Amino acid sequence: MPINSLKVYGYRSIKNIDLKLHDLNLVVGPNGSGKSNLYRCLQLIWSAANGSLAAAIAKEGGMPSVMWAGARSSNDPARMRFQLEVDDLAYTLECGIIPLSAITEVKGDPWFSTDPDIKLEEVTTVKKDKRVKLLHRKRGLIEARGTDGQPIEFPILGNPFESVLASLRAPHLYPELSRLRQEILDWRFYHHFRTDLASEIRKEQTPVFTPVLSHDGHDLASALASIIATNGGYELNEHLQNAFPGAKLEIDMKPTEVSLLFEMPGLNRPFSARELSDGTLQYLCILAALLTERPPNLMILNEPETSIHPDLFDALAELLMVASKRSQILVTTHARELAGGIVRRGGPKPIELEKKNGETRIVGAKLFSYDQDDDDRN
Ligand SMILES: Nc1ncnc2c1ncn2[C@@H]1O[C@H](COP(=O)(O)OP(=O)(O)OP(=O)(O)O)[C@@H](O)[C@H]1O
Ligand SMILES: [Mg+2]
Fold first, then answer.
1. Same domain for 101 and 229?
2. How far is the CA of 68 from the centre of ligand 2 (A)?
3. What's the domain range around 92?
4. What mean pLDDT do residues 217-227 have?
């Protein structure tokens, strides 16, 4: 199910934004405008559903690092809040700093003081045009109800720094909460395909059927081979030709080794992954990720245009349009030309971010016309 809307409050540079999401969403903005912060906050929601919120926040430096560092009004409590609408379900997760009185002390020293303290967690649905609360958690108190409004008595063991969603032990008693959790856990993230010379992508790989490309793309040869094995690779070849006219992708499959070979017009021999340019490898990873035989509910790509020449943006726009018919897609990018390519194909206008007074804001795509050539704006 697609996400209909996402509200983020108090997370890093995102003091307060409200996004309406479509099947395909391009988030554009200059350096430091908050694109990756948006990507990261979706990862945090995924971590909350997975039971690894505290660890994910620790990786980002702990709660004091991830909370909005700018000014707040005096009656505005220091909170970080995510609100999500998926299909008929709405989810709210609000975290803050652990109060001094509740910090674990060992021999007089505070321990785990930068973990998140979940202040509020709520799931609602719509029944007969009315919002029904399915889960309400305020600090330690947790209350769950069925869609009929009746309380569910089975206990949910909460801990203050992990979500209730991740703590469900009897999912059949909480079908709506479990559905929401599964929806979120299905999201797929791609942030950085490793294309450096030492990258696994460039080496021969042990073949294994791989319907989903790994996050760093290390199993690219197996993932491309799996697409070809499943559907003949005609669509893959079509998109490859859009990007690299006249090129040919071959898979060299041996019982214990798989590698890719890439033929380019004008050259007398195919090149192995070891010899390909960073941008070509990056594009092959994007192809494998987007043409997956197992499309997720939501695929999120952070700045996929890295190393890719603007000449390929039109082919990438076409690819994103096709992939967004199978999965909801959110792409953060610097590349306005990519947004132009989407709009020219009848896709939605991009979500334009800017930073003002340290705060990420949505500009509104109407400031720009994406109908003509965008080169003069860069
Ligand atoms: N706790 C915080 N409070 C306020 N701002 C923060 C906080 N943590 C990080 N930032 C700011 O968030 C800004 C946006 O970072 P982000 O990485 O999302 O930018 P970006 O749009 O992805 O940029 P780039 O194009 O360079 O990748 C940075 O300038 C950083 O200073
Ligand atoms: Mg970034």
1. no
2. 17
3. 3-20+47-186
4. 97
